[in-house]
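This part of the workshop introduces the protein records we will be handling. A record pairs a protein's sequence with a compact description of its fold. Comparing a sequence with its tokens is the quickest way to learn the format. The record below serves as our worked example for the rest of this section:
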Amino acid sequence: MFIRKITLWFSRRSFQNRIFLLILFTSTIVMLAMSWYVTDIAKDRLHYQVGQRALIQAMQISAMPELVDAVKHNDLKRIKSLIDPMRSFSDATYITVGDENGRRLYHVNPDEIGKFMEGGDSENALLNAQSYVSVRKGSLGSSLRGKSPIQDSTGKVIGIVSVGYTIEQLENWLNLQIGSLMFPMAVLLLILLYCARRFSLHIKKQMLNMEPQQLSQLLIQQSVLFESVFEGLIAIDSLYRITAINQTARRMLNLSQPESELIGNNIDSVVSPKAFFYDATQKNKKDEIVTFNDTKVIASRMAVILNNQAQGWVISFRSKDDINTLSLQLSQVQQYADNLRAVQHEHRNLISTIAGLLFLKRYDNALALIQQQSESHQKVLDFISRAFRDSHLAGLLIGKYYRAKELGLELVFDPACYVDATLPSALSSSEWISIVGNLLDNAYNATLRHSGGSRQIECLINSEGNEVIIEIADQGCGIDASLRDRIFERGVTSSNSGDHGIGLWLVRSYVEQAGGNIIVEDNIPFGTIFTLYIPLSRDEHHG
């Protein structure tokens, strides 16, 4: 019952206190065991040393010629005069001298003289002439004593000498020795207590000041959360070994192995290419378009920081189809809607003008306007259809042409424009449209924000060499110096509108994905020139 109460009380303590109490209990047991062991060793050593001391004294006294002669003649007075000085210099409790029958001739207590020596341990000395150490109870209590025979010149045993140390005296000496160890033992115990306290605090800190049950619950929640998100999640340590990977990630990466078999493997042995994981490890990455195991994804990488050191990274990624929805909105659906609106406005203005001329009965002017518009539209349509064999790109450029006219701008195509029917497969049709559409939109916005330059936007797209060259030049407001190095980052824009800051980020992502690069230059006298070089194949990276 008592043990059960102690166990219940112990289980109600905090983890930190339980660790402290456990270490304290263990340390105390160890200290007690050490004390018992040291005491036992010290006791055995003390008994051996004192026994040898008693034996040596007994042998030295028994070999004294004067004592031999006094015992031989049974001269008690002379014996007393010989032994008393020795007693004053010896630390022994007593010295006893007996005759050949074991009757006392000298004793510390005069009343004991003439009586037989007690203890029954004198036979070997008297009968066999042996010297030895024994522990017996005598007239002064239990003692450790050395016994040695007294022999005459012929070797006959004529007496015995016994030098003894009482057990009580030995206990006092042992206590003095143990007492000298108490202070260092107490200091050691205090050090152990301090270390136990520091260790418990350290464990508590490593556990984020949570109890084990809280950590267990947190781990379960993390596991459920890790598996419940719709994004792929991979956690790696500082050595780039996988520590966790959820089911979505395994499905998106076409991995058939269970999580238990993947944990501990290097990330580059599971996911390729490995550049996303190893590049610029000191920086976090957000929403980069990359390829994992031949699957295009939008990936982010966040460092796990502990004590200002990166202990690993968490990589989250989702299918590129998610961002394609946004891309299509920016470069297709929204583009086509704008194109239709531009054509509608253009057509409405033309019809209104013709209706006015007919009302004024200026039939020749109305006919000339119809012919002029027809020729102008047909010329642009003929050029675009002839120069751009890709139907998606041609449709975009027609819409952008009318959109420019609606905005009071002029989209001018370089005569060198030519695009084959098949664009590099590194990018899909929607991605090519996104690149061109976003660059033209930026040029339109920059031109509209600047009233001092020309209203023309020049466009060159050519795929006749080893790479596709896209060059868009405007004479707009240019790029602010503070934003020049960051214009391709997500969310960075010079516009005050909240729906900007994505277009150029998409452009950069797609160009890097295809192995190309972008050059941004100032136009003369105003504006900016964006030049893109995209190789026809992934290996032909433009330098």
Remarks:
- The first helix runs from residue 2 to 11.
- The mean pLDDT is 81.
